[in-house]
Design brief:
Elements: E1 5-10, E2 15-21, E3 23-28, E4 31-35, E5 42-46, E6 49-55, E7 58-65, E8 68-72, E9 76-81, E10 84-86, H1 92-108, H2 112-131
Parallel strand pairs: 1-9
Antiparallel strand pairs: 1-2, 3-4, 3-6, 5-8, 6-7, 7-10, 8-9
Helix pairs in contact: 1-2
């Protein structure tokens, strides 16, 4: 067990994962970071993107997160995600429609606050499309 790191993924709705893994790669705000057993302690914000869970040298699980926080210790990696969904469960058509709708919301935004909110939601939608390989055209 000493060569494993305990990975926990928590969303507001539920505990999504709690398991020992060989490595987990988290999309940190300042760049992706890999966590192995014995990692130096850190706390990081998480940007919209995909968490990759490894067993050996294989990715065994991919989960889209819309942002949040990660806490890493020598034995554990805990991610508190604003929203989390397994990449395999993302509906491409719904994600593309969501991106289109949010692009229109950004075009219609009148105030700076409305524009900032629309841009944040659009960034999450773009990251979701990137997660499933659909890509998203820059707005």
């Amino acid at each position: 067990m000493a060569d494993k790191v305990e990975f926990e993924l928590v969303s507001p709705e539920k505990l999504l994962a709690s398991q020992p893994v060989d490595m987990v790669v988290v999309p940190g705000t300042e760049g992706d970071f890999g966590v192995l057993a014995g990692h130096a302690p850190l706390i990081s914000t998480v940007r919209p993107g995909v968490i990759d869970v490894y067993e050996g040298d294989r990715v065994v699980d991919r989960v889209f997160v819309a942002g949040g926080f990660a806490e890493v210790t020598e034995t554990r990696c805990t991610v508190l995600a604003e929203q989390a969904i397994p990449v395999a469960e993302i509906d491409r058509a719904k994600a593309e429609q969501e991106f289109k709708d949010l692009s229109e919301d950004l075009d219609d935004a009148k105030t700076d606050a409305d524009k900032a909110e629309a841009e944040a939601k659009l960034a999450i939608a773009r990251a979701k499309l990137d997660a499933i390989g659909a890509g998203a055209t820059a707005h």
